[in-house]
Amino acid sequence: MRKSNKIPVKKSSQKKQGHKISEKISPVVQEDQAMYYTLEKSPGSFNIENRNSLIYWLGMPSSNGKSFVSDFDIIKLGASGITKNAIHTLASFIGISRKYISENIFDVSVKTLERKDNRTKLDKKTSSHAVEIAKLLQHTYEVFRDEEKVKRWLNKENRALNNLKPVELFDTLSGLRLVDNILVRIEEGVYS
User: Fold this and answer.
1) Paired residues of 14 in beta bridges
2) In whole angstroms, what is the distance from residue 96 CA to residue 153 CA?
3) In total, how many domains does the chain have?
């Protein structure tokens, strides 16, 4: 196996649902019979579909013109705080009740959360946790490409997760990472 020169080949830009997609294909390894490529998407192609955007999963209006192209943008979103409506939106996408997401995932009484005004921002810890869940929902959608399949998979016991439902691990960042690792395994064709 020998490494080839990394000569980027620019793929023609396409339009999909009003968004410009620009990708480049870079050869990584060339063997006698095969050439393996990696596909790199430019930062501008982050929001190819509305469902591939954090603001979709958090129920935030997309008209504010914000695009989250780097991890620092996502950190800033969590630090600035999100509203309780984002929590309710996450619960509906996951297929769980407001009470379950409040008390079992965010460790906040559902009554305390319901007393907050719709425009009041939640604290940094809760907001950051919600953003991490939205990132996981986005990855889950990228794997299954169907919102109903996402709900079913998140709420079904999984052998690779010690017979727990993925949603049961959402209360910690380590649990979210474990679920994300299972999604990577599924993407790569490993039985999970």
Assistant:
1) 21
2) 13
3) 2
Q: What pTM did the predictor assign?
A: 0.71
Token pair 């600035």: residue: 80
> Can you give the residue range of the structural domain that contains 157?
46-187
Residue linked to tokens 């930062």: 43
pLDDT digits (tens, 9 = 90+) for 81-124: 999 999 999 999 999 999 999 999 999 999 999 999 888 899 99
Task: Assess whether pLDDT exceeds 70 at residue 73.
Answer: yes
Crossing angle between the packed helical segments 147-154 and 84-94, to the nearest 10 degrees: 90
Angle, vertex CA 41, rays to CA 184 and CA 80, nearest 5: 75
Cβ atoms 48, 19 nearer than 8 A: yes
Q: Is residue 192 part of a domain?
A: no
What residues pair up with 37 in beta bridges, in sequence order?
Answer: 27
